[in-house]
Records
---
Amino acid sequence: QLQLVESGGGLVQPGGSLKLSCAASGFTLDDYAIGWFRQAPGKEREGVSCISRGDGSTHYADSLKGRFTFSRDNAKNTVYLQMNSLKSEDTAVYYCAAGLYCSGSRTTSRIVWGQGTQVTVSS
């Protein structure tokens, strides 16, 4: 069974940091492009970042460059999203997804989604 499990969300003050994890089971993460998405209440789901299969090149939404960093640990079959200088507008449910390719900050041909983890940025 293909599965992705996110963790690491929570409540953080503006300017703070969080590190999200996305662990895979049933398949090897490095064989897929992995994307982080987020969805805020009343808004469409948007692509945050994508890491390509193989070479591990990373792609970010323009508005997030410099604050978010996507990394992959093949030994742990886990990817991470380090989020710094968080703002209230970063509040959303964050999801990871596995697909075939990165198209900008989004994965394409997605085959599996995680259940999501809530990130709330508030004082």
---
Amino acid sequence: QLQLVESGGGLVQPGGSLRLSCAALGSTLDYYVIGWFRQAPGKEREGVSWISSSGGRTNYADSVRGRFTISKDNAKNTVYLQMNSLKPEDTAVYYCAGRQGLATMEQGRYKYWGQGTQVTVSS
């Protein structure tokens, strides 16, 4: 059973950077697509990025493309989300999720979810 644990959230000023981590327990990430999702107060959860099981393919939401980078460290069984040039509208709880099969931004297709980590962008 795949378990995911997020970390790295916090308070940052606009224009700053944070790196979120998604550590996998119970199974190797070699078999899983990992997606990052976020939910802002009063809004629905939305897809941010995904990385394929091989790590060779990635995708980003238009709102973060060019500012966020998703990556994978197989040795550490961890996926990262490097977030640069952060904006107040990036404030949200960020979740990582895992699934087997095709990569997708559709959150309903992800079976395994972490508990979330809060990111607040404010001066």
---
Amino acid sequence: QVQLVESGGGSVQAGGSLRLSCVVSGYTDRSYSLGWFRQAPGKGREGVAVIRSTGAITYEDSVKGRFTISKDRAKNTLYLQMNSLKPEYTAVYYCAASGLWFAELDATAFRYWGQGTQVTVSS
């Protein structure tokens, strides 16, 4: 059974930083994509960053230079380092896993999801 468990969310002032973590268990595919998505109140779920088993990474345009996605395979953990946070980044952040090694920032390509962690950025 595949499980993804996020942690690290919280409240921070604009310009601050947070690091999200996602522990992935039960996932054995050697080809995969792992992603971070977010959903603000009243909005759809949007892709933030994806890292593939090849090491290739894609970021959503507004977070380029601010966010860094990484993975520690030994710890089965996915990370999202978020710097220079803006109030518009306030949302529930989800990690997700896909069996597609070439998945893009498209939620429909991801089969497994965590429960989400709240990130609130105040001005």
